[in-house]
Amino acid sequence: MRRRVISLIMAAATYASVVYGSPHTPDALDVINDAAVKSIDEFMARFNGEERHPQVDNDSLSRQNTLFSLFDWGDNPENPRIDRDMAAEFVDSVCVMGNKIGLDNSNVWCEVGCELSLGERRVDVKIILVRELLEGRGARWGIVGVRGLKASGFYSDSLATLSPVDHELGFISFKDWFNSNHRLVPSLRGSTSPIDQKSFLMGMAATGQLKYRFPREMTLHFMDVPGFIFRIRRIVRNTVNTGWLIDSIERAGEFNKLTYLNTLFIE
Amino acid sequence: MCKKLCVLCVLCVIGMGYCLCSAEESGAVELTEEQKGLVRQRVVQKVDEFVDALTRMVDNSQTHAVRVENQKNLLNLFIGRGDAYDYEDVGVGMVHSDGVQMWTSSVTRGTSTPQLLRGYIRRLYNPAKRRSEMSYSQIKIKKAAAVRVDNIQKEGDHYVCVAHFYQDFYGIRDGRVVYSDRTGKQIKCYITPIELPDAGVVFDAKLGDITVTETQKIPISR
Fold first, then answer.
1. What pLDDT is recorded for position A15?
2. What is the tens place of the pLDDT at every residue in A196-226?
3. Given A181, B60, B136, B191, which residue has the most CB atoms within 10 angstroms?
4. Minimum-distance CB partner of A23 among B153, B162, B218
5. In chain A, which residues have their Cβ closer than 8 Å to the Cβ of B218?
6. CB contact (8 A) between residue B218 and residue A25
7. Torsion angle (degrees, nearest 10) of CA B193, B196, B198, B200
8. Residues A192, A197, A203, A205: what is their CA dihedral angle, to the nearest 10 degrees?
9. ipTM, two decimals
């Protein structure tokens, strides 16, 4: 049964490209645009069984079929990007889960790749955000982590030598470090005090030197489905398998979820 | 007995007062499903007005006055009329925006680039030059597919939501379509409830930043 369900969706996914060829006529684009998961809200609605994929029949299998349609199956139906058996297990797990997924809980993490600039220099960073509810103010997104400053060369793990006798001189060498070697200041930290990239980025941005240019890509990581972690991204493709789709699933117990989460924050 | 009743009444009044104060402090209250439906209708109407005004503004067959009028109407649909504006964030005070941002893309360029809406609109039709600054003798823009409205959320003393729609663009030179695409767009919308004496609560909608989700090629008919 599972195989039949998946192959139905796979057939649907390739339907538009096979039938209409490329580029598509406006009428064919209407079919694709209707099927596309245009927003994360639409993804949630289809995932939670509140809406269904327009090419999925309204029958006893519509929930499962719609869930299968939310995977990024790739461009080649013979060699799908997602393991079919794992996808089937995942769909089973979601169907018995009972509760709905949503952004307003702590098990969804948003990762935005952005290009920033410092003078002429371009800096690629990943900003990690979570949704939170503030008393009396409703929902907001908050930045909880940053990755990429180290790879961009803003600081290194090396430790500079702040002279062991500087305490006798009131740390007079700070003038040299801060004013003539400012790029090395992060290397003055204690060996057991790692740099918090979020604070580092916010500090630089607050001085007005670091400018935002544009977002590159956005990924949402979900840890709500028992036994799984999954990730969604916007996939742009000229078939009905397009829009916000699950581009990765992993089997994961609670401990693995914690490890996964750490990888979001640590470079 | 009478004394107990009085105490109970006083407690009830205090309780109701507290509830009202809490609702007021928290800004806008959550919308009902019926109200969300009204918000959706209002946003769809605004997006339609936006695309209609855009269509008329780029239409060569319209007079200069009509095109300028549509440009003005179009900008009036946006927060701050597309210009720089300030707004109050209850958490931090006044926040400045340089103006409504617009992302554009093309099938050849692939990536989206940001610019201010006013600049983009002026590129499509520059009233001073009485023509478009794009390299086409004629431009056609029309809405494709229905508008979808998502994410109706409370934000301080107002509501926000996101409208998704598709727009077809045709660049014509010497009477021939030389470029055409369909672009998926998202517009942030600001919704303010207004209490009217006779009509009850109505929802005013202003459009905000626009991003591009995808650009699809449309075949050029010869």
1. 46
2. 899 999 999 999 989 998 888 899 999 999 9
3. B191
4. B218
5. 23-26, 29
6. yes
7. 20
8. 160
9. 0.78
| pLDDT tens digit sequence for A88-121 | 999 999 999 888 898 887 689 999 999 999 988 9
Q: Tell me the residues of chain A between 131 and 190 that have a Cβ less than 8 Å away from chain B.
A: 134, 136-139
Nearest CA in chain A to B90: A137
Residue A36 in contact with partner chain B when CB distance is under 8 A: yes
Note whether A67 and A91 are within 8 A (CB). yes
Q: How close A29 gets to chain B, by Cα (Å)?
A: 8
What pLDDT is recorded for position A10?
55
pLDDT tens, residue by residue, B140-155: 999 887 899 999 998 8
Query: Model confidence over B166-211: pLDDT tens digits?
Result: 999 999 999 999 999 999 999 999 999 998 888 888 999 999 999 9
Q: Give the residue from A33, A131, A244, A245 with the most B CB atoms within 10 Å of its CB, the best one to mutate.
A: A33
Give the residue from chain A lying closest to B30, CA to CA: A138
Confidence band of A143 (pLDDT split at 50, 70, 90): very high
For A86, phi then psi, to 5°, come to -65, -40
Determine whether the interchain pair B153/A29 forms a contact, defined as Cβ–Cβ distance below 8 Å: no
DSSP-assigned states of every residue in chain A: -HHHHHHHHHHHHHHHHHHH-SSPPHHHHHHHHHHSB-SHHHHHHHHTTSS--TTS-SSTTHHHHHHHHTB---S-TTS-SS-HHHHHHHHHHHHHH-SPP-SSSTTEEEEEEEEEEETTEEEEEEEEEEEEEETTTEEEEEEEEEE-TTTTTS--S------TTGGGGTSTTHHIIIII-GGGGGGGS-TT----HHHHHHHHHHTT-EEEEEEEEEEEEE--STTEEEEEEEE--SSSS-EEEEEEEEE--HHHHHHHHHHHH--
Which residue in B150, B153, B219 is closest to A39 by CB distance? B150
Q: What is the mean pLDDT of residues B51-72?
A: 96
From the centroid of its chain, how far is CA B28?
19
Counted residue by residue, chain A has a size of 267
The pTM assigned to this predicted structure is: 0.83
Take residue A261 and report the two structure tokens written for it: 């989460």
The verdict on a CB contact (< 8 Å) between B144 and A136 is no
